[in-house]
Amino acid sequence: MPGKRLRSQDWFGRDRPDYYHFARRAALRSEGFGGEIFDGRPVIGICNSWSELNNCNLHLRTVAEAVKRGVWSAGGLPLEFPTISLGEMFMRPTTMLYRNLMAMDVEESIRANPIDGVVLLCGCDKTTPAQLMGCASADLPAIVVPGGPMLSGQWRERRLGSGTDGRKLFDLFRTGQLSEEELQEIEGGLARSAGHCTVMGTASTMTSLAEALGMTLTGCANVPAPDSRRLVFAENSGRRIVEMVNEDLRPSQIMTRKAFENAMAVDMAIGGSTNAVVHLLAIAGRLNIGLRLDEFDAVSRRVPYLANVKPSGEFLMEDFFAAGGLPAVMREILQYLHGDAITVTGKTVRENVADAPCYDRTVIRPLDSPLHREGGTIILRGNLAPDGAVLKQTAASPDLLQHRGPAYVFENYEQMRQQIERDDLPVTKDSVLVMKSCGPQGAPGFPEWGHIPMPRVLLGQGVKDMVRISDARMSGTSFGTVVLHVAPESAVGGPLALVRTGDFVDLNAASRTLTLAVNEDELERRRAAFVRPPLKHERGYGRLFLEHVTQANLGCDFDFLRAL
Ligand code: FES
Predict the structure, then answer these.
(1) Which residue of 197, 206, 494, 504 lies most exposed, with the fewest beta carbons within 10 A?
(2) Nearest residue by C-alpha to atom 1 in ligand 1
(3) CA–CA separation, 293 vs 276, rounded Å?
């Protein structure tokens, strides 16, 4: 192999007459390799988040095999290794509690082992940001291969988007409009294959943003999981990472400020999940980019929403891919992107997408005929959220984007669960549901509880949406006029903790404000009476999390993991 001495040579190199180099070569040969593998070829780690406790990533072993073909054919040595995986549907209380743990696992696994470059296999929501955070900190050549979205769901003649349609149909079941038998039929057809959720939820958003950041091959993110072209991309990524090692092309050279500005613009154009805000802030924090929450809003005002995919739009990820996928969107908004940003292809964004075709303008709208003239996510501020809050305006009801109503307060998630089905819950369509103690520290772990279910009493009246506010996150597959990530959170004494039932709350998306209509003297009295709840974890990882997690507006990474 040409070029400079490889990092892996410090473990295996025959040029070091050292017992441990000999012993490590012997150890690796126990896996059935011949002595020729120590000829100075790059060692490529394949960081696999496969797990049977993560249905979305279940096919990643097959993807890893395709990556290995590529690595071998390019003259590298592929070595696959596992990390913790984060299965969105199974982990309690929330995968977000463990995103930083996975990021540490990825970072330290890369750093501690004889690896020259790494291919990252991800898919389900948090697995992508965790791998990007870890590889950013380790800063060895890295390329991402997402697992892709699952097949569209199906029930009788209907195509279903996991998450989004599941919630809508479950509300029909709650109100007696679907039978138990029908619900069971839906259950069997909602998720028909491995792969992540097939709407523009957090997984589709974050894998698309990995591509927008320049960390995947062009067009790789949206290929459906069972599609054979997924494996072709995997093999090509295996070949490419060997070249990247030889070029010494590292994440810190790709995930630059320009790349994050590109990712924010793409996030707005695809109507990405609100969770993207938290994750991009966290990844950027690993690289000392200095990304701020308000930058998302500035981009949102400029870049229109184009991708007609649920939950904000009509179609599913299979349709988005068939229409041209992310490259078609990036080509459409090229004027808002840094076309000269470098990517894992070794080429610029402009070179990658300048000729990207779009095959269906109903799915990917042209810039002069957007679905919304602004981007999907906006940032709110005001006396209820001094450090910001987020709202996905494209998934909200237009008539609620300017709204004043009386608060109905749930002190925590458990109280909400107990009360939401009450037929005598004293709320109207104008009420504003407020839920506390669901933030990074309060829940703890910042769970996706913010999509407070519609009260059954209102569903019975035909009311489908209302303003809901919390310091929680929301699944990217969810929808509604839902204000999230209120910071500072209530558990640390943020103003959300001071809201009482009957207080009036003003939401104004146009002016980006969220206001509690209570005078400052009264708020000061309530603030003086606030008692911080006790920590919910006294030992182990939970304690580490509570002692070091940052607030939502900083990305919820641990303070000691951010770049110095
Ligand atoms: Fe894994 Fe939705 S549950 S992406």
Answers:
(1) 504
(2) 124
(3) 11
**How many angstroms is it from 162 CA to the middle of ligand 1?**
8
3-state secondary structure of 423: coil
On the question of pLDDT at 216 being above 80, the answer is yes
Q: In a mutational test of the pocket of ligand 1, which residue from 50, 88, 151 has the highest number of ligand atoms less than 8 Å from its CB?
A: 88
Q: What is the mean pLDDT of the chain?
A: 96
What does the pLDDT average to over 470-492?
95
Asked if pLDDT for residue 478 goes beyond 60, the answer is yes
Q: Is 125 in the pocket of ligand 1 (CB under 6 A)?
A: yes
Instruction: State the Cα–Cα distance between residues 456 and 271, nearest whole angstrom.
Output: 29
User: Distance between CA atoms of 356 and 323, rounded to whole angstroms?
Assistant: 11
448 lines ligand 1 (CB under 6 A): no
56 lines ligand 1 (CB under 6 A): yes
Residue 476 is predicted with a pLDDT of 83
Q: How far apart are CA 145 and CA 60, in angstroms?
A: 9
Q: Say yes or no: CB of residue 58 within 6 Å of ligand 1.
A: no
Helix (H, G, I), strand (E, B) or coil at 447: coil
- Specify the ligand 1 atom closest to the Cα of 88: 3
pLDDT of residue 1: 46
User: Does the pLDDT value for residue 327 go beyond 70?
Assistant: yes
Tokens 């009476």 identify what position? 529
Ligand 1 pocket: which of 50, 127, 197, 475 to mutate (most atoms within 8 A of CB):
197
Residue-wise pLDDT tens digits, 426-462: 999 999 999 999 999 999 999 999 999 999 999 999 9
- Phi then psi for residue 94, to 5 deg, are -170, 145
CATH of domain 378-536: 3.50.30.80
Least confident of 19-33, 35-49, 95-109, 165-179: 165-179
Residue 406's pLDDT band (cuts 50, 70, 90): very high
- Give CATH for domain 41-151+193-353: 3.40.50.2300
Residues in Cβ contact with 561 at an 8 Å cutoff, skipping those fewer than 6 apart:
100, 103, 104, 133, 137, 285, 286
